[in-house]
Each structure stands twice: as C-alpha cells, then as structure tokens.
Specification:
Helix content: 25-40%
CATH class of the largest domain: Alpha Beta
CATH architecture of the largest domain: 3-Layer(aba) Sandwich
Largest sheet: 5 strands, mixed
Number of strands: 16
Shape: elongated
Length: 596
Amino acid sequence: MIRIPLRPLARILSAREKGENPDTIERENIRLRHITMQDKARNRAEGRLLVLGVFFVVAFGVVGGRMGLMATSEAVEPLASATGATIAAQRADIVDRNGRILATNFETFSLYAQPPVMIDPIAAAEGLARILPDLDKERLIKDFTGKRKFLWVKRKLSPEQKQAVHELGDPGLMFGPREMRLYPNGRLAAHIMGGASFGKEGVNAAEVIGVAGVEKQFDGYLRDPANGDAPLELSLDLTVQAASERVLYGGMKLMNAKGATSILMDVHTGEVISVVSLPDFDPNDRPRPPIEGEDPSESPLFNRAVQGVYELGSTFKIFTAAQAMDLGLVNANTMVNTRRPLRQSGHEIGEFRNKSYGPELSVSMVIQKSSNVGTARLAQMIGIERQKQFFGELGLLERTGFEIVEAQGGRPLIPRNWGVLEMMTISFGHGMSATPMHLAAGYAAIANGGRYVSPTILKQTGAQYGPRVMSEDSAAAARSMLRRVVTHGTASFGEVPGYAVGGKTGTADKPKPRGGYYKDRVIATFASMFPAHDPKYVLIVTLDEPSENSGSKPRRTAGWTAVPVAAEMIGRIAPLLGLRPGVEPVQMAGITLTSN
C-alpha cells in the first residue's frame, strides 16, 4: 500500500515561501487519510452485513422448507441406531378374530435396592419379607449388609405392594417403571399365548420378549415400532375357546383321563378357531419348564395339540378308503374281502377284540364297522408308493407349519422301512404317529371337497385352498361314510340334533417308554366334521388314558369316551359359530310326477 506523507517536503517548502503555515498541510492530510480509512471500514462492514443477511435468508428458507415438508408427510417413529441406546419396552397387543384382547401391556414397577444409602438394612429386609412372602428374609439381610451396591429385589410389584414398600420409608429401596405383559383372560388359550418375560433390563425400562407360543413366534412383529398400534390378529374366537375349554375339562374329569386336547378348524380357510390342551397353566405366572430327565408330556407346558405325537388309530381308515375310491379301485359299494386270518410277514392282522364281520363287507361298511382287515385289503390294492405319496399330500409326513414355536417339535414318526406290513398297519392308524393338528388338516381336506388347507393361527380374509389331493366325488363319498359312522356305527354317541355330525373314532394302545404297548392305557380320538352334508368345521377331540367307569368294567374306547365329549362340545359351540340347527337333506324317493 502506498502511503502519502503527512508533511510532503515540496509543499512545505512552497508554503514557507508563500508565508503559509505548514501545519495546515499536515492537518489536511490527516483528515483525508481518516476519510479514506472510514470509507474502507464502511465498505468492509457493508460486505459483511450482506453476507450475513444472505446466510440468514438461506437458513430461514431451509428451516421453512423442512417444516413444510414435515407438515405434509406422514409421521414415522424414529428408530435408535446406536447399540444399546434405549430399551424398547413397548409391545403390540394380541387380539382374537373379533378384536378382543388376549394379551396387552400393563404399567407396573420393579423394586431394586442400593444398600450403601440404606438407613436400617435389617429393618428394611424384615419389612420386605412381610410384604413379599416369597422373598427370603435371611438372604435379603445378607445382601443388604454385605458389599453389594446394587441388587434387584422384585421384578414386578402390584400397586398395593409398591405402596406398602414405599411406606417402609427407607431411601435405599427404589422403584423402576416397567411395562409387563398381561393376559387378562388368565388360562384361556394359554398354550397359544405361550408367555413373555424380561430381556434386557435397566433401572428405568425393561425389554419384554416372548418365551413361547405366538409371543415367541411373532416376537419380531410384536416388538417392531414400525407396526404402530396394529395388534396381532389371531384366528381364535375367545367365546368359542372358553366354551371348548370348559367342556373339554369336564369331559377329561368325567372320563378320568390324564390329559386332553381339542382342535376346531375352519375347513376352507385353515383358521384354527379353538385349540385346547389340558392340563394348562396361567401365562401370567408361567411354571418352570421340565428339567432334564422328566417326561415333557407330564408338564402343563406341553401342548398336546401340536407336540403330542400319537398313534391315532382308526381315524386313519377314512384316508385309505378315500384314496382307494379316488384311484378308481373301488366305490362305496364295492365288496371287500374281510376273511380271517390275514397274515403278512409272519404277523396276523385281526379285528378289535377279535370280532368277525363275515367274509366280505362293502367299503362303506368297512368304515362303519371299523374293520382292520378290510382296510388292510384296500391298502393292498393301493400299494406302498401311492400310499406314501397320498399321506405326504395330506401333510401327514412333515410338520404342520402351524405358527407357534412348539409345532416345530411335532414331526410325525414314520417307519424306517415302509414295507408291506407297515403299509397295511398304517392304513388303519397303527405303526405311524402324528399330532392331532395333522389329523385336523387331513380331515379338512375331505370336508372341503378334496383340497389341502394348512392350519393357521392367524386371521384370514377368505378361503386358503392348497393343492387338490382328491376329487370332489371321492371326498363326498368319504363324508357320507363318516356320517354313517355316527348314525349307524361306532360313534353313535356323537349325534347332535340339528347339526348332522360325521366322524370316525380311533382307539390306539398307548406305547410304553421302552417298547411295547400297555394293555389298559389308550389314546382315544374322535375326528369329526359338521354339518356332514356341507361341512364348515372339523373338530378333533383326543383323550389321554381315558376310562369310563359307569359300568361293571372300565370302557376305554373312543366311542365311549372321546365321542360324547365331542358331541357335547359341538352342541355348545355350534350356536356360537352362527350355525343354526337344520334338517339334514335326504335323497327323495324315486317318484315321477305326471300330469293328467
């Protein structure tokens, strides 16, 4: 920068020659220099103000644009991306098909202690033991007077318990807010609900996770905040479930059974409207699982509907008859050889209690009389490979896919070597084991006209037909046979006026843990559908070790045990399902109308 001197020599000399004061020149140059500096400072300040003004205009424009965008967009819950940022405690509700609450959340408190800030640890321990009797007073005293600085005392407190602890007045006893899982219906549908527990825990929150049933199967959905307030809708009907449980419990006690299960399934959608397993439990206070070495089936946690893999006896016979008709090998009136003895591979196939049904029976009578020999003869016509293929199409060789975690353990037990003898025994339900849920799906295929439907616990919006496994004509003929089993056969106690029940009984000797079969313990099953002429539902009732003792000798067959229980259940639940009693259609006599 070129600086102009304040006292330029030339001008000073010129001023002196003229008699002027040289200081005037200096003052004038100083004034001009200050003016120049002021102009530069002003220009600099104006530039800065301009930049600042532009910045504020842009900033306000961005904020305004963002606010406008947010105002016109849908609200989305932010998700924490940092590990362990916040414990997600919220969990979606579970409702039945009509929107009634099956599982929800309940605000409560946990109790924890900080011994270093306690005033009187011993008195606090004694007070807690009085309020919470399940706590060990000596253990509390040891913990409160030891070196621990923090410990959980109780995970869940009722409002009354919280108030009582608060009144102890010890500052070392503190409360943490919690959301716990609540099942307002108690034991109702316990095996489907399963239960929930706490996962990650903090002082101010706890993660609720599913431990069994649909709570575990759909844990991801229930915990996902993106689902908002959308509950998990199940196919269960709470009213039908309550009636089914009450009837089945009474039937189990009346028939002196050690356990029981029932399944009510929509034959078109596959929806399971009711599923009961007894004994049951309260998911609000879930019992401990069986320890290693204990029989899982003895635990109330055992779900007999999907985990109970049983020989289901003569209920399988209708599958054999339906396949033989579908292959064109026989029709309902074809006569089948039932002469005895029938020997195969050194074993004799006989009838229940050594009954004799004569030299031959029609296919319809084979089912009505429940002839083992007649069914085995049909299996001989079918052959091993075709039988295996048909059973596979009915879903009897794999897990059902029913959406609770326990169903994953319900894999059917099939023989390693599926030979001729096995083919014949499997045809009438022995030598192969499956769950009652498998049986429900198989009978649904007969009921709906020949299409497989997969059982589901989720609410559906319409028919969910799978592949066709038999023709409509074969399915209709099989339904007629099942109807005759109730009207003229082994399930005569299953008749429910107005609802035209069709079904098949099955009584299988219970296997011993180390091989062989008990002579006085059975699994009794009645697989039914109603109304038989236009089935809407399939009902399976299975009793574990039943014994009807009103006569001189115990009666254990399904006709005496499972059938009456199923009939009582149908009479109770059919009106709840919206089915009105009706007159069963019959074939009119062959009368020809003529005019004069």
